[in-house]
Amino acid sequence: MAQNHQQVQGGNNNLHYETLVRLFSLGSQEFYNRFTAMVVTHTILLSGLIVGTGVFRDPNLDKSMKLATGIVALVGIVLCIIWWLLLHQSLSAQAFYRKAASDLETGLCFQIFSSSGWQPLGRGFLSIRVLSRLVIGLYIFLYILVILLITV
């Protein structure tokens, strides 16, 4: 009876571990899909602002064009802030799933998340966390540059 209980409990640990690994994988896939979509969105938005308005060629835009360009640039900045918040939420969830899976590995015969050779998402000098924030910061800088160019 006690052996059956241990087998059931071990089976539950395996199921919990498998669920956590799947959630980690799903979260990673969601993160990269969102990251790609936001990079494409901001690149198109900035390209439209720069090429469509000619802000770098003709600093003497009429007032309505300057207003429209400024509004679109502000919308881009707001989207970047939302993107940063989503990034923070996604990486926090990833850290939770990774930690929970690592804790469950102690009772299993294999170790993926707690092994020393595996580099988890969000570690290192140019980790995805740092790199993502640099990309978002670059887009915000470019939007601010567009706003400064139309106000001069």
What can you see in these coordinates?
The chain has helices at 2-53, 63-104, 128-151. The chain has 152 residues and is an all-alpha fold. The chain has one domain (2-151). The longest helix has 52 residues, at 2-53. The chain starts with a helix and ends with a helix.
What class, by secondary structure content?
Answer: mainly alpha
Tell me, briefly, the overall form.
rod-shaped
Number of strands: 0
Compute the average pLDDT: 77
Roughly what percent helix?
Answer: over 70%
Total count of helical runs of at least 4 residues = 3
What is the strand content?
A: under 5%
Largest sheet: none
Q: State the separation between the terminal residues, measured CA to CA.
A: 81 Å
List unreliable stretches of 5+ residues.
1-9, 120-124
- Domain count: the total is 1
Rg, Å, rounded: 23 Å
Compressed to H and E, one letter per element, the order equals: HHH
Give a summary of the structure in a few sentences.
The protein is mainly α and 152 residues long. It has helices spanning 2-53, 63-104, 128-151. It has one domain (2-151).
List the helices and strands and how they pair.
Blueprint: H1 2-53, H2 63-104, H3 128-151
Which characteristics define this entry?
single chain, 152 residues, mainly alpha, 3 helices, rod-shaped, disordered N terminus
